Each structure stands twice: as C-alpha cells, then as structure tokens.
Amino acid sequence: MAKLALLLLLGSCAGLFGAQARAQEPFPGEPAQLPPQQQQQLPPQEQQPAEAPQAAPQPLPDPGTTIRVNTNIVLVPTLVEKPSGEVIYGLNSKDFTLDDNGVQQNIHVDDDLDSQPVSIVVAVQRGRSAALEFDKIAKLGTLLQLFLGDGHGKAALVVFDSHATYLEGFTSDTETITRDLQRLQPGDGGAAILDAVGTSVDILEQRPPDQRRILLLISESRDHGSHKVTAKQLVQRIGTSNTLVIGLTYSPSKATLLDDLRGSAHGDPVGNTGDLLAPLMMAIAAVHKNVSKELAVMSGGEYASFTREKGFEDRIAEVASHARNRYILSFHPKDLTPGLHQISVKLNQDYGARVVARTSYWAVNDAAAPQPQ
Question: Where is the composition biased (Low complexity) (predicted)?
Fold first, then answer.
C-alpha cells in the first residue's frame, strides 16, 4: 500500500513538471523564451533588452476635403532682411505698402515677432531615392527646437511615399521625433508630395488659431504619384491657409538647374492681367515644376536645396531664424471676389533689404465659390 501511494505521488509530480515544460515551449515559429523568474536571474549582459515601441500612426485628416476659412482677414508673413542676413526690426504699418490685385489695402503690422507659440508639421519623403538622405534628415530632430523657441511650440511628423502617414502627433518633446527619424524605413517608389502637403495643412488647420503654423517640407522637387490632391486643389488649399511653407529639397538635378536658368514661371510677366485665370494657371504650372519652391513663394516662406549634412543643418538654422522673425501683416480685403488674389508687399523706404512675403491668397466668400477640379 505504501509503494502504491509513492508511485501515485511520483506520477503526479512528473505530470506537473511535464505540464510546466510544455507550457514554456514556444509556438511553431516563435523563439523560445525563458520564464520570467529565470530571466530576472540572468546577468544584465545576457538579458535581451526590450525594443522601444514604434510610434503608432495618428488618424489622418481627409486631404480631399476642401478647407474653407474666413478671408475677412488675410495674414501676410513678411521677412525684411539685409544682404548681410541681418533682420530689420522696428517697422510699422507706415513702412509697408500692400496691394491686393493691384489695389492698395489698409494694413496692420504685428511687430512682436517672437511672441506667438508655433505649431510645425515636418513632412519628410521616404519614397523613391529618399533613403540616400536619411543620415542627414536624422539630425533634424535636435534642430527642431530652433523653430519651437522657449518651450511654447509643438511639432508633428508626417512621412510619405505613395501615401502620407501621420506618424507623430504634436509634441514639445523633440527627442520623440528624433527617434522616429532615426528609425525611418525606406518607402516605395512614390513621392506623393501634393497629398502629403494637403494632409499636413489639414493637420495644421486643426491647431489653435493663436499659433503660427509652419510646414517644413523635406523632399525632392517634383511630385510622383499623388492621387488625392491635385495641383489646382493645392493652390487653393495653401491660399486659404495661414500656413508658412518652408521647402528643403535634395540637390537639384542638372535638368532642374537648366529649367531654373531659363526662368521660373513665377518670375515671368503675367501677361494679360485682365484674365483672372492667368495667375492661377501660372501657379499650377509652377507647382508641377517644383512643388516646394512654389508653395514657399505663395505662402511667404523660403526654399533651398542641400547636398551635404552641414549644408542641411545650416539651412535649417537659417530658415528657423527667419520663420520666427517675420512681421505679420494683416488686412481686410476690399474685394472678396472668389478665387486666387495676387499680393505684393513693398517697403516705402529704401533700407537696402529684401522683402519675402506671401504672394497670394484664395478668397472664399459666403456664397459657394467654384472649386478647382
């Protein structure tokens, strides 16, 4: 009887140990893992560190949605800079003349240049040959603080190939975006710049109205594969948004340089100014030629290309300083005819400085205006 009891006890123990062993076996194709109590006993160098979680994509706004903003007040970011790079401060409304479709407007000038918090969306191409630039772009995260200032600003990240992904929501923690950029994976063969800009502007339009809105676009110069936003729609979208676009592109190709030498559409004479469609058609053509450059010109931002890592960092520092040192001119348009309006800003006195200002906006009144197709 004692032997029988001993055999039953041994059998139950064997079953228990077997069940524990089976419970620890991996599923087919799954790596074997030690139980937690044994993992804790391993020396630190033998424990496998937990991989940091990847950023979860944020919900995307629909870039096909038409933005409608109140054009009773038009904001015109304006940079006044000497050839030496020195920004001219202390100007007021008497120092500027602003025309809307050739008609002089009454303007207000906000000269408290660095007081508003900043919301910036960084849109980074990862498709086509963008992977060749990843080592430079990975340095961007630490430079974002130049845009954000003293802790009141926030940045978000959009990456794109054939599709735009809202990768990181607005945060003041630039280290988060730095990690995202350092882990950026090459995309497919597309560069849907129009779609990515449309998405980025939609995201910025949801920010509080008292914040300066900046889009930093890092990409090649031409769109490849956008299927949600057309060039016409993007001209309207930038025109109805108070978003400053800064475009940084990879080194231009020889063909692009030759096109620029022949003269850009933006710098050529408009021709028959009585034709209201002429400025729109020219803007669309310029977007097809170089998206980043034309959007920067339209919004009053800046455009530059880069080749080396040092050049990339220098351009970022320069445009960040300019973005935070622009006057904000504003006016109530005397004529709200729907469509694209041309803006010109001039200094009333020769300071030997260049003026970089928004060149157009899109008027939408209460009656439904015709939509670009």
Answer: 30-55
